[in-house]
């Protein structure tokens, strides 16, 4: 049987087997069986998609061309796996706790769930991955062509491009079948994972088999092989230190950033602890993969005729030796490497493209929120499937355009450098709180441009896309813009040069812009959750479903995942909760499950947003907020200082306002006081002036008239004097400048004196009633001032009491410790509405009688305040009634006096 | 016939002084000493001239003047306002209320006479 036909048959059988395995695994996972599917070994094997056809075929070619340098491609991931194990763990933890579906999702989520950033990452990922997919197609095509060429029965060579097309179609079919089967929780694809794990075993076994054959079959033993390796040119390649470090770092970066690596490492991860196993098992796998690379390359170089592509030594050596079976195994190994890479890359990229580009566009085009629009499930599925087709097709297109002429390794490195641009934003996002969205976008943009210019575009060959003169003289004739010698970095290896400048500028811009710009609150919050992922949020942030309405959730879910599935989900949850109906309580667990379910269809951010629209509850735990608060302590302090300053200013302003108000009030009081004073002064002045003019100018006045008018002038002059005295007295009292002259004396004696002083002379009509027994108390106070108050009250009674036979009764009583002296007359008293103003200055009531300036009671009040007592008007008495109250401290019984 | 003047003022000595001066000048002087019913007094007496103090018990001179002016019969009766508060504001208020003339206490007797004579002569 012709080898080519056998090959096709074996190949188809193998593919069918993969389908079966994937289907079975999917089925088992769906029914909850197959715990072994989640074993750490499966996880480790799935990581082996790092070893693509580039590794399978290309490593040997790489070794044949550049010697031991190929080892750097394995060294990078090994260092990451062992030395950066905790970084990976953090990434996985963050990925799980934030329910991210891709590296674009992770980066966008970290930087405030920014879709702009997600689109940037997606675009860069697609551009970076397309050549890689092309590379896989090319490897399959090349190996197939090699087989065909060595097959004597095949009359003509199959068309390379049609082979690539068929492979591309087959891969698309597989990926769509197993990658978009289940649009459910967490983007895990058990079928796919188990299939690639199987392929990992196949490719390792195939490579080891070829290695064993080469060492023991062709070379004749280990020592022989070593001798032949020593003799081969591989050992004579000059090792450039810079290139070694550069390549190692590049592959390490790519290992972290490649979308497909992220897919298997983070998204498909079932258990964080699987990383422990992978930390040693994966480097072991890589070591086995690279074990026979040098022998195969060395023997190949010596055995095979010159001009044979060293990239295909793995295949051509067995063929050359007539070992068709081994060759077929080798082909299957290479085929496995290529297909697993394409499948996972297509899944990873399609998730990104559909979630971040197609779905937002579709939702935008629909012009409504996701909740409002109809069934988005089909849209999500269709977007995913179209994306897969589109991505594989892009790879095919690149393969067609580039003509497959490039050596495999070179294309791989271009891809690596492209995705390595994610590194600053990714690592910054995981470890640096100050990193922000603007910084990430800027850094990514700069890195992308530099990479495009110095690596991606030149990879199509000089003078294909970039004309030759740009390579010679730089863009726009600027010497420092030559793609291979940016900023005058002459003589560097083009790869190291491009990686150095792109990553360096990317990082620098990322850091500078992050420092110069201020993150939004969501970024700060997400930053805290990412950077401090181990400190809090050990699981996904829970929902608080108190306010959620199950029915609304149900309606929304039906639109997204289809009514049957939604109903099954809801009634299942209700049953679990022990409820009779089909609607479960919106417990946090249920909401979390629902969100996971939805996020598979529409992406995490959208699912989260949709549920939070309905639940409306806080999606942030107290710890998260506290963490942010901790981190923002400095800003808080600064702003609180500012606030304090502002408060101080406000306080000062308030005080100033109060002071101003008081001044205005004082000014008004002063005005009215001056106006009153003016009135009180001008009124007697008017009489004095008028009568003095009459006396002066009027002839023939009778002596009586003269006497009368002179008396008026005299009385008014006295009135003026008294007014001035009162004013001065009041002013002194009010300013507290008065010196109290404390004396001791009996109240009865004081009243005697007072009445005598206030006496109205012989014509006095006012009768004064007293109770002398009660007045037998001793006072120790300023008796003269107290007498002044009494005189004022008696004089007022005399002046204003309007009874036929005016009578004033003065009664004393000791109430508690206070002494109360009431002055009650039998007149009509003071009207209720005026009782409140009588103690104010210039308060005069009723018809003014000469001699009253309205200051008396104001002075009385001031005096009583100074003496520690009080004066008040007693309403509801038979007439005008005033009460003078003296404090206990001034009162003593008469017995004390003798002491 | 003697011109009738109504003096609305609450300070007894000033009433006496002004009455004396005007009587000697040939005026028929009537006096009223509170604000409450000052407008009624004006209506009853139909004076040719009113001398009105601003500060009166019961009602301010400005209010009384406004009421007088609102009565058609007294719209043009000359009113001399007296105030003991020598502030610009008071003068403005007096003019606004419709005072014909405004005088600040203390005044000279000759001033008062000149004023009332000229006001009635108009």
From TrEMBL, chain A:
EC number: 2.7.13.3
InterPro entries, sorted: HATPase_C_sf (IPR036890), HATPase_dom (IPR003594), His_kinase_dom (IPR005467), HisK_dim/P_dom (IPR003661), HisK_dim/P_sf (IPR036097), Na/Glc_symporter_sf (IPR038377), Na/solute_symporter (IPR001734), Sensor_HK_Regulatory (IPR050736)
GO molecular function annotation: phosphorelay sensor kinase activity; transmembrane transporter activity
Database matches in SUPFAM superfamilies: ATPase domain of HSP90 chaperone/DNA topoisomerase II/histidine kinase, Homodimeric domain of signal transducing histidine kinase
Coiled coil region boundaries: 628-662
Protein's cellular compartments: Membrane
The protein's enzyme class: transferase
Pfam families, per the entry: HATPase_c, HisKA
Entry-linked PROSITE patterns: HIS_KIN, NA_SOLUT_SYMP_3
Transmembrane parts of this sequence: 6-29, 41-64, 70-88, 116-135, 163-180, 192-219, 239-258, 279-305, 325-349, 382-401, 407-432, 439-457, 498-518
Membrane topology: Multi-pass membrane protein
Superkingdom of source: Bacteria
Keywords: Coiled coil, Kinase, Membrane, Phosphoprotein, Transferase, Transmembrane, Transmembrane helix, Two-component regulatory system
Histidine kinase domain segment(s): 676-890
A cellular-component GO term for this protein: membrane
Catalyzed reactions per annotation: ATP + protein L-histidine = ADP + protein N-phospho-L-histidine
Alphabetized CDD domains for the sequence: HATPase, HisKA, SLC5sbd
Family in the record: Belongs to the sodium:solute symporter (SSF) (TC 2.A.21) family.
PANTHER family: HISTIDINE KINASE 1 (PTHR43711:SF1), TWO-COMPONENT HISTIDINE KINASE (PTHR43711)
Name of protein: histidine kinase
From TrEMBL, chain B:
Annotated TM spans: none
Domain Response regulatory: 4-120
A single BP term in Gene Ontology: phosphorelay signal transduction system
Pfam families linked: Response_reg
Matching CDD domains: REC_OmpR
Entries under PROSITE patterns matching the protein: RESPONSE_REGULATORY
Positions bearing 4-aspartylphosphate: 53
SMART domains in the record: REC
Gene Ontology molecular function: DNA binding
Alphabetical keyword list: DNA-binding, Phosphoprotein, Transcription, Transcription regulation, Two-component regulatory system
PANTHER family referenced in this protein's UniProt entry, alphabetically: RESPONSE REGULATORY DOMAIN-CONTAINING PROTEIN, STRESS RESPONSE REGULATOR PROTEIN 1
Protein name: Response regulator
């Amino acid at each position: 049987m012709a080898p080519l036909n056998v090959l096709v048959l074996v190949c188809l059988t193998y593919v069918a087997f993969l389908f079966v395995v994937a289907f079975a695994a999917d089925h088992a996972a769906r029914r909850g069986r197959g715990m072994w599917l989640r074993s750490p070994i499966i996880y480790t094997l799935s990581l082996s998609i790092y070893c693509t056809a580039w590794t399978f075929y290309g490593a040997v070619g790489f070794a044949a061309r550049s010697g031991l340098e190929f080892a750097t491609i394995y060294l990078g991931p090994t260092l990451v796996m062992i030395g950066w194990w905790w970084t990976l763990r953090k990434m996985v933890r963050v990925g799980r706790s934030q329910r991210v579906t891709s590296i674009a999702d992770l980066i966008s989520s970290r930087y405030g769930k920014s879709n702009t950033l997600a689109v940037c990452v997606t675009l860069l990922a697609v551009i970076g991955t397309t050549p890689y997919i092309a590379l896989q197609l090319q490897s399959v095509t090349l190996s197939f062509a090699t087989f065909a060429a060595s097959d004597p029965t095949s009359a003509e060579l199959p068309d390379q491009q049609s082979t690539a097309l068929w492979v591309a179609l087959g891969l698309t079919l597989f990926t769509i079948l197993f990658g978009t089967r289940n649009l459910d929780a967490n983007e895990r694809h058990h079928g796919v994972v188990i299939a690639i794990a199987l392929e990992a075993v196949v490719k390792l076994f195939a490579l080891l088999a070829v290695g064993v054959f080469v060492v023991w079959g062709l070379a004749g033993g280990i020592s022989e092989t070593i001798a032949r390796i020593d003799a081969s040119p591989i050992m004579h390649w000059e090792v450039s230190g810079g290139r070694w470090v550069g390549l190692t770092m590049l592959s390490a970066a790519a290992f972290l950033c490649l979308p497909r690596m992220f897919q298997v490492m983070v998204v498909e991860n079932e258990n964080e602890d699987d990383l422990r196993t992978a930390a040693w098992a994966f480097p072991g796998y890589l070591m086995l993969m690279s074990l026979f690379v040098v022998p195969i390359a060395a023997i190949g170089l010596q055995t095979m005729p010159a001009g044979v592509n060293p990239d295909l030594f793995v295949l051509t050596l067995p063929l050359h030796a007539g070992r068709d079976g081994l060759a077929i195994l080798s082909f299957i190994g290479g085929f496995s490497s290529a297909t697993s890479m394409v499948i996972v890359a297509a899944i990873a990229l399609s998730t990104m493209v559909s979630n971040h580009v197609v779905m937002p566009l579709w939702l935008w085009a629909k012009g409504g929120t996701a909740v409002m629009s109809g069934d988005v499930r089909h849209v999500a599925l269709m977007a995913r499937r179209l994306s897969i087709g589109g991505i594989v097709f892009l790879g095919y297109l690149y393969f067609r355009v580039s003509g497959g002429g490039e050596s495999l390794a070179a294309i791989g490195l271009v891809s690596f450098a492209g995705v390595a641009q994610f590194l600053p934003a990714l690592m910054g996002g995981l470890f640096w709180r100050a990193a922000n969205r603007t910084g990430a976008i800027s850094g990514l943009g700069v890195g992308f441009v530099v990479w495009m210019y110095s690596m991606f575009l030149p990879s199509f060959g000089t003078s294909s896309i970039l004309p030759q003169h740009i390579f010679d003289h730089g863009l726009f004739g600027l010497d420092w813009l030559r793609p291979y010698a940016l900023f005058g970095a002459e003589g560097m290896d083009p790869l190291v040069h491009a990686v150095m400048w792109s990553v360096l500028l990317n990082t620098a811009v990322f850091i500078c812009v992050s420092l110069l710009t201020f993150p939004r609150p969501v970024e700060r919050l997400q930053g805290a959750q990412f950077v401090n992922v181990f400190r809090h949020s050990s699981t996904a942030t829970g929902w608080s479903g108190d306010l959620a309405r199950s029915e609304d959730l149900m309606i929304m879910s039906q639109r997204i995942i289809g009514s049957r599935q939604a109903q099954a989900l809801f009634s299942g949850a209700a049953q679990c909760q022990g409820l009779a109906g089909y609607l479960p309580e919106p417990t946090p667990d249920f909401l979390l499950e629902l969100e996971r379910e939805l996020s598979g269809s529409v992406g995490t951010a959208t699912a989260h947003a949709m549920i939070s629209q309905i639940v409306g509850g806080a999606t942030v735990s107290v710890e998260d907020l506290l963490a942010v608060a901790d981190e923002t302590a400095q800003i808080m302090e600064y702003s609180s200082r500012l606030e304090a300053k502002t408060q101080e200013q406000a306080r000062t302003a308030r005080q100033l306002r109060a002071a101003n108000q008081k001044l205005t009030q004082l000014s008004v009081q002063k005005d009215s006081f001056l106006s009153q004073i003016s009135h009180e002064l001008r009124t007697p002045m008017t009489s004095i002036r008028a009568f003095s003019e009459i006396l002066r100018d009027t002839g023939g006045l009778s002596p009586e008239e003269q006497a009368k008018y002179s008396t008026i002038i005299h009385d008014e002059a006295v009135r003026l004097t008294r007014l001035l005295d009162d004013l001065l007295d009041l002013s002194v009292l009010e300013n507290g400048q008065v010196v109290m002259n404390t004396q001791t004396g009996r109240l009865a004696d004081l009243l005697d004196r007072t009445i005598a002083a206030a006496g109205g002379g012989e014509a006095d009509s006012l009768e004064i009633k007293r109770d002398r027994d009660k007045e037998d108390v001793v006072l120790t106070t300023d008796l003269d001032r107290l007498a002044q108050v009494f005189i004022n009250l008696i004089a007022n009674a005399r002046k204003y009491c309007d009874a036929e036979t005016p009578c004033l009764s003065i009664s004393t009583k000791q109430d508690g410790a206070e002494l109360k002296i009431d002055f009650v007359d039998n007149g009509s008293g003071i009207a209720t509405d005026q009782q409140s103003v009588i103690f104010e200055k210039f308060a005069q009531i009723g018809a003014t009688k000469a001699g009253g300036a309205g200051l008396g009671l104001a002075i009385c009040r001031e005096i009583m305040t100074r003496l520690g007592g009080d004066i008040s008007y007693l309403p509801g008495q038979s007439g005008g009634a005033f009460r003078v109250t003296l404090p206990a401290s001034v009162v003593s019984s008469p017995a004390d006096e003798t002491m | 016939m003697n011109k009738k003047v109504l003096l609305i003022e609450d300070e007894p000595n000033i009433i006496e002084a002004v009455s004396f001066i005007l009587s000697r000048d040939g005026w028929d002087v009537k006096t009223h000493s509170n604000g409450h019913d000052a407008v009624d007094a004006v209506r009853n007496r139909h004076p040719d001239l009113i001398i009105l103090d601003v500060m009166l018990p019961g009602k301010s001179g400005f209010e009384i003047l406004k009421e007088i002016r609102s009565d058609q019969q007294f719209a043009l009766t000359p009113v001399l306002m007296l105030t003991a508060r020598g502030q610009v504001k008071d003068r403005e208020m007096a003019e606004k209320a419709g005072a014909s003339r405004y005088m600040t206490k203390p005044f000279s007797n000759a001033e008062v006479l000149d004023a009332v004579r000229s006001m009635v002569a108009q």
